[in-house]
Structures are given as C-alpha cells and as structure tokens.
Amino acid sequence: MRASFQLKTIVATLGLLGAAVTSQAYAQNIKFAMVIPTTGPLTQYGDMVKEGVSTAVEQINAAGGINGKKIEVTTVDDACEPKQGPVAANRVVNSKIGYMIGPVCSGAAIAAAPIYDNEGVVVVTPSATSPALTEGKNFHYIFRTIGRDDQQGPSAAKFIIEKAKPTKVAVLHDKQSYGQGIASSVRDQLQKAKVNVALFEGINAGDSDYSAIITKLKSAGVDFVYYGGYHPEMGLLLRQASEQGLKVRMMGPEGVGNPEVNAIAGNAVEGMLVTLPADFSTNPKNAAIVKAFQDKKRNPSGAFQLTAYAATQAIAESIKAVGDDPKKVADHLHKATINTVIGPVSWNKQGDLNAFDFQIFQWHKDGSKTPATK
Q1: What are the UniProt keywords, alphabetically (predicted)?
Q2: DSSP letter assigned to residue 277
Q3: First vs last Cα of the chain: how many Å apart?
Q4: What distances in angstroms separate CA 244 from CA 68, 166, 223, 262, one per listed residue?
Q5: Distance between CA atoms of 321 and 359, rounded to whole angstroms?
Q6: Residue 367 has what pLDDT?
Q7: What is the CATH number that goes with domain 26-148+281-357?
C-alpha cells in the first residue's frame, strides 16, 4: 500500500509539473482575437478575414513568432450584427486579450468600438469601411487596413461619370450604416457632377421579393443602378430585375463582391460592377505569401484576405518594435509606417489609412472578376 501511495504521489507530482510547464508555455503566447461573423448570412466575409489572419499567423509563428513568442488566436462571433458587437467586445475584454482583428462589418464595429477603446484593446479592422467608425470619435486604439466609404464612393462615382456615362441613375441602399453611408457618398458625387439621380431609396435587408422597387425602377426609366449593401440583396436585385425584363447595369461596393452572389443571381450576375481593394495578390512581391494561401487551398485574391493579413502584420510588427503593451502598440501605429502585404501603410490621428487604392472590377458568372474599363 505504501509503495502504491508513493507511486500515486509521484504521478500526481509529475502531472502538476506537466500542467505547470503547459501553463507557463501558454502564458508565453501573445493573444489575438478575431471578431468575425461565423453565423448569419454574411459568414463568407468572416471566412475571408479568417483566411487572411490564419495565413499571417502561421507565417509569423513559423518564423519564430513575435520576439520569440507565438501568436494564439481566439475567434469570437458577432454575426455582423450591431447588437452583437458589444457582446463580442466584452468577451474579448473579459478574456484579457489586448489585440483584435475585426470587426468585419461596419454596424457591429461602430457599436463595439467605444468598448475596445475604453478598455485599451488595439483593434485593426480589415473590412469595416464606414466613416462613422472613426470620424470625430477621438479613439486611440481603433485602426483600419482598408479605406473608408468616402474614398470608395468617389471611386465608384468617378467610374459611373467618366466610363459608364448613364443618362438616369437610381441609388439604392439597405438602410444600414455601411450601405446607406456609401450610397449617400455615391449619390452626392453624382449630383455634384450634374448626373440625373432619379431615385434614392432604401430597401429592407433580408426580404425575398424586390418586385416593388424593380417596378419603380422601370417606371423611372433608369439605365444604371448603384446599390449600397451586401451580396444577398444585390443577388436578388440582379436576378429579379432580369426576370422582370429590366435591363440596367448594376454596381455595388466591396460588400457585394462575394462568390455567393453568383448562387443567388445566376447568370444575371454577369457584368455586375463592384468597387474592391486592389488585387494585391498580383503583386510579384507577394508571390511567397500567395503560395502560402494556395498551399492551404485559400483564396488570396478575395476582398479581405490580404487586408486581414496586413492587419495581423501591423499589430505583430508593432509588438515586435515596442513590446507586448497595447498602449505602446497603439502609440506606435499612430506614428509608424509599416511594410505589409498591401504595401506600406500609415495612419492619421483617427486611425484611418492615409491612402488606399479602391479599383473597379467587372464580375462574371463563373465567379471571376476582371478590371472594368467601361
């Protein structure tokens, strides 16, 4: 019995030592959070961001981590819902995580940003484009690796004015922060150029029948439609317009640039115009990173994969420069220029990029895209 007792004591002691070693190793990791939609209708955008973050973390950790410490990523779901944004933020804060990539959608980001900023969590969103996230907020910890809608909107409007040259335009939106914001920006630019904006109207996101608005578009005699919102509604607008004989060109922001739009719109998606971040995957300097994506069967050419990779790089490089301290990292980001997969990036005092390249692409029924010329 005594020998048995001693054996049990030794085993228990070894177990405790093993747990202590594991705990110590775990403590050496640097925790990042990734707040994305893993539920709801916009999970595809979460998948894009996840691919970018995962690839960046794998590359950084394989190269020795950050100052010898590995990055450990916790995924938190906010469903791209404004009501869920603060819930997700509190989960990040309560988990004592000091760095976060996301939120993906502007509405959720706007709702959650005050919590992150008050609690000192460094946030870099690779996809939330609404100016309302940062404009006039005096946040210190909120950054982006994508441009704002008031950069994206003028790019879209310039193409409409100079290349598409419609006679009568309708501008639609989904009544939400992101969609209505960018639609308003496009409308304002078109009106400044004396383009006839015959209709500016909101539709309800999540509806399945847009016959009424399509009838209104036909009655107004428009030959071009700009839609501010996401791909589920854009897909339905394209398909139902085609079914009802409305032959117009349609254009949307990066929120419609998702292969899932093809499944909804079918052949009617052919020729859809979309503003997207430049395709950084075509830059020869990114060849090794593109290969790392492809080796994992990930798509480096989507809307947010490489902006998410860049967001991860920006935080990692700042920690490398100033240490694992969110306050110092935020200070560093405000004054640094960091070389990333999307090029050298720097931020103004609001945390917005000093420059970002949005381009116009034409979407095709096979899910591919090509630069738009007219």
Answers
A1: Amino-acid transport, Signal, Transport
A2: E
A3: 88
A4: 61, 21, 15, 18
A5: 33
A6: 86
A7: 3.40.50.2300
Supply 271's token pair. Answer: 């020729």
Q: Is 350 helix (H, G, I), strand (E, B) or coil?
A: coil
Instruction: Name residue 72's beta-bridge partners.
Output: 31
How much of the chain exceeds pLDDT 90, in percent?
88
Both structure tokens of 316: 């990692």
pLDDT in tens, 311-345: 999 999 999 999 999 999 999 999 999 999 999 99
Helix (H) or strand (E) holding 33: strand 30-36
pLDDT score of 177: 87
What is the rounded distance in angstroms from the CA atom of residue 348 to the CA atom of residue 336?
10
Asked whether residue 106 carries a pLDDT value surpassing 60, the answer given is yes
Q: How many CB atoms lie within 10 A of CB 83?
A: 11
Residue 365 C-beta-side C-alpha neighbours within 13 Å: 8
Give the span between the Cα atoms of 54 and 99, in whole angstroms.
15
The encoded tokens of residue 303 equal 């809307």
3-class DSSP state of 103: coil
* CA dist., res. 86 & res. 326, Å (int): 20
Whether 41 and 81 have beta carbons less than 8 Å apart is answered as no
255 residue type, one letter: G
CATH topology of domain 150-277+359-371: Rossmann fold (3.40.50)
DSSP annotation of 169: E
For residue 227, the SS3 value is: strand
- Identify the three-state secondary structure at position 202: strand
> Do 26-148+281-357 and 150-277+359-371 show the same overall fold?
yes
Nearest to 182 by CA among 204, 205, 152, 146: 152
AA identity, residue 78 = D
338 and 345 in contact (C-beta within 8 Å)? Answer: yes
